[in-house]
Amino acid sequence: MKNSHELVLETFKEKFNKQPLVVCSPGRVNLIGEHTDYNMGFVLPAAVNKAAYIAISKRDDDKIVLVAADMDDEIETSLSNYSFSEKGWPNYVICIVDQLLKANKQIKGFNAVISGDVPLGAGMSSSAALECAVAFALNELYNLELSKMDIAKIAQKGENEFVGVKCGIMDQFASVFGKKGHVIKLDCRSLEYEYVPFELKGIKIVLFDSMVKHSLASSEYNVRSSQCQEGVSIIQQKYPEVKFLRDATIEMVEECLHDASPDIYNRCKYVVEENNRLLAACADLEAGNIEAFGQKMYQTHTGLSELYEVSCPELDFIVSCTKKEEAILGARMMGGGFGGCVISLVKEEHLDEVIKRVKEAYFNKLNKGMNVYISQIEDGTRILA
Ligand code: GAF
Q: What residue stretches are annotated with the Galactokinase N-terminal domain (predicted)?
């Protein structure tokens, strides 16, 4: 079977009879720091060995011809007459065009073939990967002189404004700035970042994909973001210096939100705790205490499930299975929630047996198969040919 790189290249040559520029942009894992990015806190993601691919070449007119090789689908639109597509996938390309035009960047039309091996709906940010691949490729094609930071910001804004998901910057940042063997400790407010080595001897990052995606995912995501803002505006009445939950302490949450609605209190409590937990987890990493790091991943899951309420029975079940395994140091749901993957740290010597048992337990309980991915941490967005 052809890999995504070969597929975009060959499909492009067949369809457009030309040698394209090929760019790939990875999906990501996030070790800890979930739902903290749009609260301007910290995250700890890494780009992985699954990516979105685009083969692209310029056109002289303003037409855009897009082929989705994995779906055997194609659309034609133009720079002067594009709109939101009910098909879904074209929006992750068009949202970038929309941003570039709004910023008065000089682009023309293009032909492109896209493909990818980031599993869709698995919480590994397949959409951000595609957005970043498109932004990076158009930057190369039309010499737009965008920096890596510009590309990540444009991709996030495209998703916010055109796709309509009010996401933070974690996914796009991780896709563009990924570095082999390192996680990125990113401050989502200042956008200062640090590469932290993450090559744990004898330990693998294993993703258990629940294979479910509940339809609540994007609507509830935006609800969480508004609830956090509501919490901030209550805290501000007493502490005007608090601009985001990132600035709040647990004491402020207790003092100001105890009488607020339980939803607001719980959401804000989780975010403030999670931000503190991330900082403590980074200290564990530095001290080489991976057991303590793993325990914090479990605490994150409990918070996401009970306070932030973005988990689901399938993810909770997988995490409960991992807790029975001595060879698993920590696990939690990853990404926006309501389905997708559980990320875990597993001792390599027991990898096969652990995976087998978790898969069997999932099947016996839910009558569902699961995919399992062993993640390698790779470089971010790059040109392949
Ligand atoms: C999704 C979003 F796109 C990210 O910005 C982040 O908020 C994440 O959910 C939750 O941490 O992947």
A: 10-58
Q: How far, CA to CA in Å, does 4 sit from each of 37, 68, 195, 236?
A: 30, 11, 28, 49
Q: Is the CB of 124 under 6 A from ligand 1?
A: no
- Asked if residue 189 and residue 208 are part of one domain, the reply reads no
Whether 243 and 148 share a structural domain? no
Q: What is the CATH number of the domain that holds 344?
A: 3.30.70.890
Question: Each residue of 147-200: pLDDT tens digit?
Answer: 999 999 999 999 999 999 999 999 999 999 999 999 999 999 999 999 999 978
Range of the domain at 107: 4-199+379-383
Task: Quote the number of domains for the chain.
Answer: 2
241 within 8 A of 235, measured Cβ to Cβ: no
> Could you tell me if the CB of 300 is within 6 A of ligand 1?
no
Place of tokens 């989705």: 68
Question: Which ligand 1 atom sits closest to the C-alpha of 169?
Answer: 5
Q: Is 171 one of the catalytic residues?
A: yes
Same domain, 160 and 253: no
Q: Which of 61, 70, 73, 171 is catalytic?
A: 171
The alpha carbon of 315 is separated from its chain's Cα centroid by a whole number of angstroms, namely 17
ipTM reported for the complex, 2 dp: 0.99
| CA-angle at 170, arms to 168 and 171, nearest 5° | 105
Q: pTM score, two decimals? A: 0.97
